[in-house]
Structure formats: C-alpha cells, structure tokens
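User: Run a structure prediction on this.
Assistant: Running it now.
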Amino acid sequence: YVDYIITPESPPFDPFVVGENNCQLVQAYFPKDALEELLPDQLLIPDDATMAKHYPNTLLKPEAHPFMISFCHGSKIHDVDTNIDVPEQEEIMFMFPVVTGNDNLDYRLCSYVPVLYLDSFIGVLGGLVFGLRKEYHPGMKHSQSKAARFWRLEGTFDASFEIHHENSALEKLPHFMEQTYLNPFVTVSYPMPFAKMAFYRARVYPRTIISSTETFRWNYKGTVVSQGDDTQSVYTDYGFTMSKLMNPIEFWKLPIDNNEEL
C-alpha cells in the first residue's frame, strides 16, 4: 500500500490508520441460534440467497453461519496525522457477515466485529478512543517460527497452525476471506454511557499467502467453536489501511458499493 495524505475534504472511507500485519486467517462456523442471541438488534444473519450471491464458494449450513478469525502480529501501526507507531501487538479479531438496515428499509452487507483481544494496553486505549470493542489480555501467549504459530488465552481460545511449504503459496486470499475484508465493517462501542453503532472500511494488501493447517478452540460467552473438515486457514502478511469510524447517519449517506448491494 502507499502513504496517504488526509485533508478535511477527504472522503469518509479514506485511510486514517495504516500498518503491517502477519496473520493466520481462519474461516470457520458459529452456531446460528447462539449467534442470533449475540447479535445487536440492528444486525441480522444474511439469508441463504444473500450468502450465495456474495460468498458463492462457501459451504452454507442450516445450523451454522460462516465467519472469520484473524490471529495477527501487528507492527508499524499509526494514524496518518501523528505518524507515531504504537507498540507491536498481538490482536485476535472475529468477523461475521451480517445484514444491517435503516428506517428506509435499505440494507447492506457488512462484517460485524463483536470483540478484539489484544495484549497491548496502548493498542486497547487507541481502539477505545475510536469506539472499537477491544479487550486487554496481558496473559495472551504467542510463539512463532517459520513453519508454525501458536496463540493461547486461558479459558478463551487455543490456536496452533502449521504453515505449509512455500510452494503452497496462493495468488490471492480465499474468496470468503477476501469478501469479508471488502465488506464495510460494523461494530458497537462499549456503553459509555450508551452503546453506539459505528462503521468503518478496512483494506488489506497481501504480499504473501500460504495455505496452512489449523487447530483451534474458541469459547465465546459459552459457545465453543473449533476446527473441522469444513474449516480452512492461510498464513498471510499484508499492509492494511483503516478509515475513521462513521455513525449510521454518515454511513447511510454514502453511495452503495456493488459488493454491499443485496
């Protein structure tokens, strides 16, 4: 990616934060009944027709909804105003394809981020300023080598990956992962004093993509998901950009992208 200059006239989705990540990305499945209990009222699980349109290569299950987890080591992360890097950090992020609508009965496909786990206190503070639901977990454990990576947070998640040989490199991200990054992101801030919905855009620019084998277990509010025959993962390192957050009024004023149209 390239450096950006932000001006008062910059479009709302222009990059505001930039950085580098090397990550394990996982596509897995979350029970629909549990997800429906967890989703905010303004968000819905897309129907099969919407999923088939935007995720044509993804297996659809009547009882479970596909989602993505990113296990990332972040570096050189800064906003474009100060250009000051935050400390390197481990960040675990969860992304669910959802549909959101407005009072005019317009609907868009988005990627919902219910929570992010970080081992960096400064990274969490920065996220809270922007309204992101980041949690500080100094007990997060992580190790890596050229061929393997590992993350653990006692009682919450345990994940390990075997990175395949470099001749297993891919030209692009698997479509589910690519589309999930293309969607506008939506999150709900912590209730201080009232929770607020916010939208932003993220873009990733992969340099390396290599297939991998995953073993993981995530316990989220009593629902446990893990690897299976229908999960997949890749290793990737990429540059990324993230826009400023927008409130729903700002978001719905923007023209709709083709990939968001239902």
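The longest helix spans residues 121-130.
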